[in-house]
Write a structure and sequence with these properties.
- This protein has a domain of 211 residues: Rossmann fold (3-Layer(aba) Sandwich), CATH 3.40.50.
- The protein has eleven helices and 14 strands.
- Strands 3-2-1-4-5-6-11 form a seven-stranded parallel beta sheet, sandwiched between helices. It has a three-stranded mixed beta sheet with strand order 12-9-14.
- The longest helix is centred in the first third of the chain and has 22 residues.
Length: 327
């Protein structure tokens, strides 16, 4: 089929393109000529012009498509207005273009986030698709609004996929964690045991494409994640072992210190005119105890299974980082 992918030049989007091409689909993507195409070089995906902030410009991109997978979105911004534009408004524009120019679309797949729900209250009560939406940051709030744009579309067959934290080859966001472990240091936030759901980008991309072509997935939302949850002690220990680090200096930072650092970094980042990677709201995210979700629905309805174990996923990521000279 003809599949349009937004955000295809990025981390997750480029892996979705890989899976689609492996399965024999004809892939198109929206990108400016000045974009960085490093993850798409040598691949048969076709670039089309268009802007997610101009509905009319999207006509050549969406026309004649069978499936649209919307991966693009903002994970960092200078303020909530920027998040709104990149997450809610871009989504609404894409949906409006689909409604206007390709009313026979077979599927629209929207990539959202666990952040729309917020953290779980209890370890034995992971977030599910039926959990109330209680975002705790501007990112989560605007991703929630984007989801509401999708679910309001009664004339478009949609599917929503919510990943938790994602890691794997090509990811720059979590690189700092690996660089820190490589230096023999493991830093932990707070003195309580925190648990997280993680998903290797290969598992996520496969889950996204499976959902895009599953008839049962129309009008449904799924968490694509690891089947188990992990502590940061566990993640750090596995990473150190794979990287050949026998000893780790373990540093625990109180929540108050983390929030103070995050607020300061965010303040100076905004003064510099760039979206800060770390800010006070990100600090709030980091201090939560249980960022965990259940894959039960995806397992039951899509046949989804976590194929990449934590150890194999980290090994795959470390080997890629080293091959790319990022470590």
């Amino acid at each position: 089929m003809k599949v349009l992918v937004t955000g295809a030049t990025g981390f997750v989007g480029s892996h979705v393109v890989d899976v689609l091409l492996e399965r024999g689909h004809e892939v198109f993507y929206i990108a400016r000529k000045t974009s960085n195409f490093r993850w798409l070089e040598g691949k048969t995906a076709t670039r089309v012009d268009g802007s997610l902030f101009d509905v009319n410009s999207l006509r050549p991109a969406v026309e004649d498509m069978d499936v649209v997978i919307h991966v693009a979105g903002l994970t960092a911004a200078k303020n909530e207005a920027e998040f709104l534009k990149g997450n809610r408004d871009a989504t609404q524009n894409l949906l409006d273009a689909i409604r206007a120019y390709v009313p026979s679309l077979r599927r629209y797949v929207h990539i959202s986030s666990l952040a729309v729900c917020g953290p779980a209250a209890q370890l034995d009560e992971p977030i599910t698709e039926e959990s109330p939406l209680k975002p705790i940051t501007a990112y989560g709030r605007t991703k929630k609004l984007a989801e509401q744009c999708v679910t309001a579309c009664e004339d478009i067959p949609w599917t929503i996929v919510r990943p938790p934290a994602v890691y794997g080859p090509r990811d720059e966001a979590i690189l700092t964690f690996f660089q820190t472990i490589n230096k023999g240091l493991a830093s932990f936030i707070g003195f309580d045991e925190k648990r997280v759901s993680l998903v290797h980008v290969g598992d996520l991309a496969r889950g996204i494409v499976d959902a895009a072509f599953a008839d049962v997935a129309v009008g449904q939302t799924y968490f694509i994640s690891s089947d188990e949850t992990y502590t940061w002690d566990q993640i750090s220990a596995v990473t150190a072992s794979i990287m050949g680090k026998r000893k780790l200096l373990r540093l625990r930072l109180p929540h108050s210190v983390v929030l103070s650092i995050a607020g300061t970094v965010g303040f100076f980042g905004k003064l510099a005119g760039k979206p800060p990677v770390l800010d006070y709201e990100k600090g709030i995210d980091l201090t939560q105890k249980y960022w965990i979700c259940s894959t039960m629905k995806a397992r039951r309805e899509l046949g989804y299974r976590q194929e990449m174990s934590l150890a194999d996923g980290i090994r795959d990521t470390v080997e890629w980082y080293r091959g790319a000279s990022w470590l």
